[in-house]
Amino acid sequence: MYAVMETGGKQYRVTPGDTLEIERLAVAAGEPFTFDRVLLVNNDGKVSVGLPTVAEASVIVDVVGHKRGAKVIAFKMKRRKGYHKTIGHRQELTVIKVKEIKA
Fold first, then answer.
1. Are the C-beta atoms of residues 77 and 55 closer than 8 Å to each other?
2. Among 102, 91, 100, 103, residue whose Cα is nearest residue 18
3. How far apart are CA 21 and CA 15, in angstroms?
4. Which of 5, 24, 89, 93 is 20 to 30 Å from the Cα of 67, by its Cα?
5. pLDDT tens column, 8-38
C-alpha cells in the first residue's frame, strides 16, 4: 500500500514505515500529525485518484524531530563592475515517520 501526499508545495510517495524530510511543520517532536491532502492511494492494486484529493483518505505520521538542511550558496557577480554578492540559505526541515495510511 502506498499513497501520494502533498505538503509544502511538493508531492511525496509514502508507504508505512518511511522516513521523510519535509518542509518545517509547526508541531513539536514526538507528536502525531495527520496529512489530509492525499492525491492518490494504491491499496493492493486498487488505485484511487483524487479530484484533486481522495475523500476520507489521510496519512498519519509521527514527527521525529526538526533540523536544518544543507547550506546553499548563491553568488552574484557582474564582471568589470566590482560587484559581487554572496547569499546563503538553509531550509528548515521536519523529519517524519509514516505510521499508517487510511483510505
1. no
2. 100
3. 14
4. 5
5. 999 999 999 999 999 999 999 999 999 999 9
